[in-house]
Model the fold of this input.
Amino acid sequence: MTQPTRVHHSAGLTAGATSILLAVAGCAPAGSGAGDGERIEGGTITYAHYQEPPCLWGGWVQQAYTSRQVFDSLVSYGDDGEIVPWLAVDWEESDDRKMVTFTLREDVDFTDGTHFDAHAVEANFPNWQAGIGWHPFTYIIGAEAVDDYTVEIHLEEPNPELYNILANGHYGIQSPEALEHNSDEENCLRPVGTGPWVVEEWARGEGISFVRNENYNSPPENASNDGAPYVERVEWKFVPDATARWGALATGEADIIYDVPPAQWATAEQEFQVLNFVATGRPQGFSFNVERGPFTDKEVRQAFVHAVDRQALVETVFQGSVPFEGNGSLSKSTPLYLDLDDTYPYDLDRANQLLDEAGWTERDADGYRVKNGEPLEVRLPFNNDIVHSTGAIALQTIQDQVRGAGFKVELIPLTQTEGFSGAYSAPDEKELSFGYWVWPSPNILDIVYRAQLGDARNGNNTSFFNDPEIEEQILDAQREPDPALREEKYAQLQQWFQDEAIAVGVYNFTYNVAISRDLHGVWQDQGNGLLNFNDAYFVE
Amino acid sequence: MSVLASAPAVPPQQSSETDRRGPFLLSARRVLLRIGSALFVVWGTVTVTFLALAALPGDRATILLNLRSGQTIDRTPEELAPINEQYGFSDPLLVQYVNYLLGLLRGDLGESYELQRPVTAIIGEQIGPTFTLAITALLLAWIITVPWTLLTAGRGARLRSVGSAIESVTAGLPQYWAGIMLLLIFAIGLGWFPVIGGASVHGTVLPALALAVPLAGFIGQATRSEFDRAMRQPFVLSARTRGMNDLGVRSRHVLRHALIPGITLSGWAMGSLISGAVLVESVFARPGLGAVLVNAVSTMDFALVSGIVILISAFYVVINLIVDLVYVAVDPRLRGTV
Done:
């Protein structure tokens, strides 16, 4: 969920077209095509990840990666994106769809020996509410145990994607006993779940040693292994440098690495196995400031998009490895996505015409457009943690291209401290924003276009869009009980935001891994690209 | 903190019977002075760190909330209030400062709010690999410098200029680049060392070398000019006339003189290696205080930054003391003054 990265050293993430199709279509088993071999029992998987989260679990996607190893969730993403049983075997919605009753497995224990039941789910709710910053957008307002193995989840709004959220890794179930009695430090570093792995040690700055849960009996329905992991240990190393990660895979020191350097992607596809997941939510794209400045004028927004050759830009900068994404509101892998790749083709004449019509008819000595003595200036603060270095190159190319239409773009790189302290987030500080949001549901529209959160401005709304009528329509689409009608309503909204050019997409955000040929069975889940090692095994 | 500044204040060794307690008293006073000045240095660094972090733009509660949810947005006062309350961010700066100092007096370095752990525990974990790397790098740098200087300094013009050119190049090598090259050649290419070395002994060689090579260049430059100067001193001639061979003159007499600036540099280098090895640590996926410090600064994690800064400043005090002692060992003229 949410922008997942902090310190990106490498130059962006890349993706091969075939593997994207695999990932989007559903299951992307790593073993496929690598040839079959005799399965070896035991062994240690060395995984070179790069960012080290402060705690094993929390609201940051980096923490979903680690949480998934230790916690099970109520439900899981199946191979075709449908939701399948995990700790919950069955579920039923109330008539008003604001309550879902889950029936739970009765034979599962936490690794501290306590028993998993409905009361455990109930006990996890306050933890989600307090620990996950974006929890309100899940609309979950409570969890209540009806009996030992039946739990009700209460919702503020109907949410058909509730299951996607519960499956996403941030909503893993922890031992209530541990939550209550262990110290914060212990729960941060060595939390207790029912999952396939147990934290043996976390050597900060080096890595986490996971050992298998010998009694594991609760994999999701879409897993192939019904019991404890085949492999004995997972050494989850933190290797921030992309060259070192690649070297570790090349020398066989690591069996799997995260975030392959773009320059090595073609080699990775040839010599190793690769997995690539297109993140759900909204893609990397433009959010125009529609509250003040030149972009309050729709024609100026459209002119800006027409002035950028987005398709060619993505192909050139990412060398054809990250997909182009035209839709500014939803990414390709999000439920109810509408393909808008054909909107706003590169057309400099059209851009110039629109700007003329909008009254930006004069030019200054440098060729930038001027209206009433005001130059056509666009401030674009960007966060390297969000756009990465390859994305920064894309932004520079955009800056150069729109100059042709007379836009003067000022790129403002933010330090990490500035980024996380919310600098440049007020309407009078920028005309344009660029970034993505990982989210498994079309109600991302509610997150990024709602004007207020309580009495305060909604910080996720970077276009400063404020239209109560449209907000009402978003909630109406979200509440629509008929699936076909709901899809139509969400499609209309996506089309509307695109036509109005409030936000327009540029490229998708992806997560990739490269895997040694003698490690089979690793897969990424379809919510966040979380790695599953329970099905993994080495071959001769 | 050079001994040259403080040494003249001390009279030559007292030898008479009646003054037997004199040297003891004097040295006790010196020790107290030293401790006092060390405490002053630590207090100063804590204060400067506190002020610097307070002056940095960015609201700590906002950073904390955004870090916990992976967002980069503005936060509402309702969201910030409980965090400010919990960590005391809304107290006046002076109150926060005094509270921190009072904690220090109790030996409490506080808790990292990002990592949710006591600062002492985090430092305790990272200090081993950090010191190992810094000390190994410094030793390697000297192991490279001494024979290099003996071989090339104070010789003919050509050898001298080649020697100093190589020193200039190595001194200017970015540690990160040196690290990547060593990794590519010796770990990935030849496979002699692990790529993900962590804190293991085997894994320490390349990162230490990456730090040692540029440092050897620096120390070499300082040593060389002193060496050249010393080679022209009359005592060299007198040693030669006593029939001493060239190597003997160089290593027994000239080198001693030439070492002084290098030793001064080493004191500085040790401190900078402790906190500044972050890029090399990152290349070799090595734990260490450098990465922790950089991360703590960017998240404005005051307790953790301050804890590490106190450690480093205390370490500087100790290393300066050691440097002073080493001066005495190297330069007999200073004996009896410490």
About this structure: Chain B has 14 helices and two strands. The beta strands of chain B are 111-112, 117-118.
